[in-house]
Design a protein that fits this description.
Length: about 280
Amino acid sequence: MELNPGSIVGYKPKTVDIMVPDERAEDHYMTTSTWVAFKDNVEAIGIRGIFGCTAVVFVSRRGAWVGHFWESNFQSDTVPEEEFAFRVLHEPKLGYREGHWKHQYHEYGWAELGFYPQLGDPGVMFGNAGDKYYEADLRVFIVTPRPRGKYKDENNIPLPDDVVHDINRNAGQLQFPGKIQRLSQEIKNVYGEDTKIEVIDYAAKLLKKEDLDLAMENKLTGAQIFHLQADSDFREARGKLLLQYQPAKTCADLASWRLWVENQAIGVSCGHIAANTERLNTCPS
C-alpha cells in the first residue's frame, strides 16, 4: 500500500499523474501536468518519479503549473526530431478539453495560462492585461537530469554504493543541454525574452544493485522498475519536487511560495499581497 504523500509535508499535495509503463494502455509517453490557482487556501503541488525525466514548474503569485516530460522524448538516438518537437515543445503548450481522454492528464497547457481571460482564473495566472494590479512575476524552473552515473569505473571496477547513489554526482552538467535550451526559448517565445528561467540539474536515481540484477534478468516489469526508482511509497525526497503556497491571511500579511527540489529549497517568493483581485479590492490603499 502506498503511503499518503501528505505524511511528508503534513497535508496532501496535488500531484502530477504520470502515465506509468505497463499500467496504462494509453499514450504513456505524453507530457502530463496539473495546476493550481493561488487564492485564500494553503496549497501544494508536486511531482514524483523524476529519475531521468524532466519537470517544468511555472509559478507566479496567482498560481502554478507543473509538467512531467519523459526522458525518452529527449533522446536523439531513439526518438526522431518530430517526436521531440511534438512531445516537448508543442503538446505541453495547449491542454485537452473535456470529452478528450487526455483531459484528465493534461487539462491546460502552460502557454494558455496567461492572457487567456476566457478560461477564467487559470487563464490569467501568468498574465492578465485586464487587471490593473497585474505585475509580471512569472518564474520558470526546469528540473532536468545530469549525465547518468554508472555502476563501474573506466576500468570496469564496481564503484562503492556511496558513489553510485551520490545525490551530488556530476553536479553542474546537463544530459540534454541543447534540447533544454530549445525548450527555454519556446517558453520565451510565448512569455517574452525577459522571462526568468532557472535550469536545475539533478542526479538521476539508479536502481540498487540487487534490483538492477533482477531487471537485467527480466524479472521486473517496466512498472515495477518505475515504482522502485520513483519511490512511489514516498519514503524519501529523492526524485521529487514540491511547491508550497501560503496565502496572506489578512491585508497586513504577505503571501509566499517556496519550491523544493529533492532536499533543497530552490526558489522562494515572499512579500506579495493576496493574489486575487477581490482580496486586493478589500484592502485599504
